[in-house]
């Protein structure tokens, strides 16, 4: 099962495709939409390489508080082990988890 939060960049995939393909031949939003509607997998090699950085975090600081999220990829335990230490989450009054 794919966790709904695990869909990388699914909020704006067509906008991303349009930006990546801008200036490459005859690619535009209409052509992207047509390819998707065809249901066929289409591979496009980009003329200029693009670095993609994927960040994964289960904790973030916002509004002076630390917010924890579900570890949907089960990575936290491996990271803590690699750091060689213990990690304990302490519930704080008024903090969200």
| Class by alpha and beta content | alpha+beta
Largest sheet: 2 strands, antiparallel
The order of strands across the largest sheet is 1-2
Portion in helices = 25-40%
**Overall pLDDT:** 80
| Beta-strand share of residues | 5-15%
Pick out the low-confidence regions. Answer: none
Quote the distance from N terminus to C terminus.
24 Å
Number of helical segments with 4 or more residues: 3
Q: Return Rg in Å.
A: 20 Å
Describe the structure.
The chain is built from three helices and two strands, in the order ααββα. A hairpin with a 2-residue loop joins β1 (59-62) and β2. Helix content is 28%, strand content 8%. It is an alpha+beta fold. The protein folds into two domains: 4-38, no CATH class; 55-97, no CATH class. The longest helix has 10 residues, at 29-38. A two-stranded antiparallel sheet has the order 1-2. It has helices at residues 13-21, 29-38, 76-83; strands at residues 59-62, 65-68.
């Amino acid at each position: 099962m794919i966790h709904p939060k695990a869909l990388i960049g699914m909020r704006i995939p067509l906008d991303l495709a349009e930006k990546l393909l801008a200036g490459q031949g005859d690619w535009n939003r209409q052509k992207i939409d047509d390819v998707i509607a065809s249901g066929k997998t289409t591979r496009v090699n980009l003329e200029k390489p693009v670095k993609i950085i994927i960040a994964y975090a289960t904790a973030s600081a916002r509004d002076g508080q630390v917010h924890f999220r579900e570890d949907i990829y089960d990575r936290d335990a491996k990271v803590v082990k690699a750091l060689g230490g213990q990690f304990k989450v302490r519930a704080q009054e008024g903090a969200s988890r």
